[in-house]
Amino acid sequence: MQLKEKTTIMDGVEINQVLNRLAAEIVEQSQEILLVGIHRRGVPLAKRLLTKINNLGNANTNLATIDISFYQEDLTQVAEQPIFKEFDCPTEDLSNKDIVLIDDVIYSGRTVLTAINEIMQKGLPNKITLAVLVDRGHRRFPIRPDYAGKLVPTRRSEHIKVMLEEIDGEDKVLIMEVENDE
User: Which reaction equation describes what this protein catalyses (predicted)?
Assistant: First the structure.
Protein backbone atom coordinates (compact mmCIF):
# COMPACT_ATOMS: atom_id res chain seq x y z
CA MET A 1 0.00 0.00 0.00
CA GLN A 2 1.49 3.31 -1.11
CA LEU A 3 0.57 6.45 0.78
CA LYS A 4 0.76 9.97 -0.59
CA GLU A 5 0.63 13.27 1.22
CA LYS A 6 -2.83 14.79 1.25
CA THR A 7 -2.31 17.84 3.46
CA THR A 8 -0.14 19.28 6.21
CA ILE A 9 -2.13 19.85 9.40
CA MET A 10 0.66 21.09 11.69
CA ASP A 11 4.08 22.59 11.14
CA GLY A 12 6.96 22.93 13.60
CA VAL A 13 5.68 26.22 15.07
CA GLU A 14 2.21 24.73 15.67
CA ILE A 15 3.68 21.58 17.23
CA ASN A 16 5.71 23.74 19.64
CA GLN A 17 2.63 25.81 20.53
CA VAL A 18 0.63 22.65 21.20
CA LEU A 19 3.38 21.24 23.42
CA ASN A 20 3.52 24.52 25.39
CA ARG A 21 -0.24 24.30 25.97
CA LEU A 22 -0.12 20.61 26.91
CA ALA A 23 2.73 21.22 29.39
CA ALA A 24 0.75 23.99 31.10
CA GLU A 25 -2.38 21.83 31.28
CA ILE A 26 -0.45 18.87 32.71
CA VAL A 27 1.19 21.01 35.41
CA GLU A 28 -2.21 22.41 36.42
CA GLN A 29 -3.50 18.90 37.12
CA SER A 30 -0.51 17.18 38.76
CA GLN A 31 2.50 17.88 40.96
CA GLU A 32 4.71 14.77 41.02
CA ILE A 33 4.57 13.65 37.43
CA LEU A 34 6.03 10.66 35.64
CA LEU A 35 5.90 11.18 31.88
CA VAL A 36 5.88 7.87 30.01
CA GLY A 37 6.74 8.24 26.34
CA ILE A 38 5.47 5.47 24.08
CA HIS A 39 8.07 4.48 21.49
CA ARG A 40 8.64 5.69 18.88
CA ARG A 41 7.53 9.29 18.49
CA GLY A 42 5.98 9.54 21.94
CA VAL A 43 9.48 9.48 23.45
CA PRO A 44 10.82 12.69 21.84
CA LEU A 45 7.46 14.35 22.55
CA ALA A 46 7.77 13.32 26.21
CA LYS A 47 11.33 14.68 26.36
CA ARG A 48 10.16 18.00 24.93
CA LEU A 49 7.28 18.11 27.41
CA LEU A 50 9.67 17.35 30.28
CA THR A 51 11.77 20.38 29.33
CA LYS A 52 8.70 22.61 29.07
CA ILE A 53 7.27 21.36 32.39
CA ASN A 54 10.63 21.93 34.11
CA ASN A 55 10.73 25.45 32.61
CA LEU A 56 7.34 26.07 34.22
CA GLY A 57 8.98 25.41 37.58
CA ASN A 58 7.84 21.83 38.17
CA ALA A 59 11.05 20.01 39.05
CA ASN A 60 9.16 16.95 40.36
CA THR A 61 8.79 15.49 36.88
CA ASN A 62 10.57 12.36 35.67
CA LEU A 63 10.68 10.49 32.38
CA ALA A 64 10.16 6.83 31.51
CA THR A 65 9.77 5.09 28.17
CA ILE A 66 7.69 2.12 27.12
CA ASP A 67 8.14 0.13 23.94
CA ILE A 68 5.01 -1.34 22.39
CA SER A 69 6.26 -2.87 19.15
CA PHE A 70 5.08 -4.48 15.94
CA TYR A 71 2.03 -2.28 15.92
CA GLN A 72 1.39 1.33 15.06
CA GLU A 73 -1.97 2.99 15.65
CA ASP A 74 -2.32 4.29 12.13
CA LEU A 75 -0.94 1.22 10.30
CA THR A 76 -3.19 -1.56 11.61
CA GLN A 77 -1.98 -4.11 9.09
CA VAL A 78 1.39 -4.37 10.90
CA ALA A 79 0.04 -6.73 13.56
CA GLU A 80 -3.32 -7.64 15.02
CA GLN A 81 -2.30 -7.01 18.63
CA PRO A 82 0.31 -4.70 20.12
CA ILE A 83 3.27 -6.44 21.70
CA PHE A 84 4.98 -5.16 24.85
CA LYS A 85 8.77 -5.15 24.63
CA GLU A 86 10.33 -2.96 27.32
CA PHE A 87 9.50 -0.50 30.10
CA ASP A 88 12.46 1.73 31.04
CA CYS A 89 11.38 3.40 34.27
CA PRO A 90 13.43 5.27 36.91
CA THR A 91 11.49 3.64 39.75
CA GLU A 92 10.34 0.10 40.48
CA ASP A 93 7.15 1.06 42.31
CA LEU A 94 4.62 3.30 40.58
CA SER A 95 2.18 3.30 43.48
CA ASN A 96 0.66 6.72 44.17
CA LYS A 97 2.36 8.35 41.16
CA ASP A 98 0.65 10.67 38.67
CA ILE A 99 1.49 9.15 35.29
CA VAL A 100 1.01 10.88 31.96
CA LEU A 101 1.28 8.58 28.96
CA ILE A 102 2.58 10.45 25.90
CA ASP A 103 1.99 9.33 22.31
CA ASP A 104 1.96 11.02 18.95
CA VAL A 105 -1.39 9.75 17.62
CA ILE A 106 -4.32 7.92 19.18
CA TYR A 107 -6.45 5.82 16.89
CA SER A 108 -8.05 2.59 18.13
CA GLY A 109 -6.61 2.80 21.66
CA ARG A 110 -4.94 -0.62 21.59
CA THR A 111 -1.41 0.70 22.08
CA VAL A 112 -2.51 2.81 25.06
CA LEU A 113 -4.38 -0.11 26.59
CA THR A 114 -1.26 -2.29 26.33
CA ALA A 115 0.85 0.45 27.93
CA ILE A 116 -1.62 0.85 30.81
CA ASN A 117 -1.59 -2.91 31.43
CA GLU A 118 2.21 -2.89 31.69
CA ILE A 119 2.25 0.15 33.98
CA MET A 120 -0.20 -1.57 36.33
CA GLN A 121 2.35 -4.39 36.74
CA LYS A 122 4.55 -1.92 38.68
CA GLY A 123 1.98 -0.84 41.25
CA LEU A 124 -1.26 1.11 41.45
CA PRO A 125 -0.65 4.69 40.30
CA ASN A 126 -2.59 7.59 41.80
CA LYS A 127 -3.82 8.29 38.27
CA ILE A 128 -2.93 7.64 34.67
CA THR A 129 -3.72 10.29 32.08
CA LEU A 130 -3.05 10.41 28.37
CA ALA A 131 -1.55 13.22 26.28
CA VAL A 132 -1.40 12.95 22.50
CA LEU A 133 -0.33 15.28 19.74
CA VAL A 134 -3.19 14.15 17.45
CA ASP A 135 -6.50 12.43 18.18
CA ARG A 136 -7.81 11.00 14.92
CA GLY A 137 -10.86 9.19 16.31
CA HIS A 138 -12.07 5.66 15.46
CA ARG A 139 -11.59 4.23 18.97
CA ARG A 140 -12.22 0.53 19.63
CA PHE A 141 -11.82 0.88 23.40
CA PRO A 142 -13.22 3.43 25.86
CA ILE A 143 -9.95 5.36 25.97
CA ARG A 144 -9.88 9.12 25.48
CA PRO A 145 -6.93 11.49 25.78
CA ASP A 146 -7.02 13.86 28.74
CA TYR A 147 -4.77 16.23 26.82
CA ALA A 148 -4.98 16.40 23.02
CA GLY A 149 -3.02 18.74 20.83
CA LYS A 150 -5.38 18.57 17.90
CA LEU A 151 -8.52 16.62 17.05
CA VAL A 152 -8.37 15.56 13.40
CA PRO A 153 -11.40 13.56 12.27
CA THR A 154 -10.18 11.18 9.59
CA ARG A 155 -11.59 8.53 7.34
CA ARG A 156 -10.39 5.04 8.13
CA SER A 157 -8.58 5.04 4.78
CA GLU A 158 -6.51 8.05 5.81
CA HIS A 159 -3.42 7.96 8.00
CA ILE A 160 -1.71 10.52 10.22
CA LYS A 161 2.04 10.83 9.78
CA VAL A 162 3.89 12.65 12.56
CA MET A 163 7.40 13.76 11.68
CA LEU A 164 9.71 14.95 14.45
CA GLU A 165 13.13 16.60 14.20
CA GLU A 166 14.75 13.96 16.44
CA ILE A 167 13.73 11.08 14.15
CA ASP A 168 12.75 12.53 10.77
CA GLY A 169 14.83 15.70 10.55
CA GLU A 170 11.81 18.05 10.59
CA ASP A 171 8.64 18.75 12.55
CA LYS A 172 5.27 18.41 10.85
CA VAL A 173 2.07 16.40 10.88
CA LEU A 174 0.52 15.16 7.65
CA ILE A 175 -2.68 13.48 6.57
CA MET A 176 -1.77 10.69 4.16
CA GLU A 177 -4.09 8.80 1.84
CA VAL A 178 -3.81 5.64 -0.21
CA GLU A 179 -2.34 6.41 -3.60
CA ASN A 180 -4.44 5.21 -6.52
CA ASP A 181 -2.53 3.48 -9.29
CA GLU A 182 -4.14 4.86 -12.42
Answer: UMP + diphosphate = 5-phospho-alpha-D-ribose 1-diphosphate + uracil
Nearest to 92 by CA among 128, 61, 64: 64
pTM, rounded to two decimals: 0.89
| Residue 92, pLDDT score | 83
Question: Among 107, 25, 100, which Cα is nearest to 65's?
Answer: 100
Give the domain ranges of the chain. Answer: 13-155
The arrangement of secondary structure in 13-155, i.e. its CATH architecture, is: 3-Layer(aba) Sandwich (3.40)
For the chain, give the number of residues. Answer: 182
Distances from the Cα of 57 to the Cαs of 24, 27, 119, 128, in angstroms?
A: 11, 9, 26, 22
What percent of the chain has a predicted confidence (pLDDT) above 90? 72
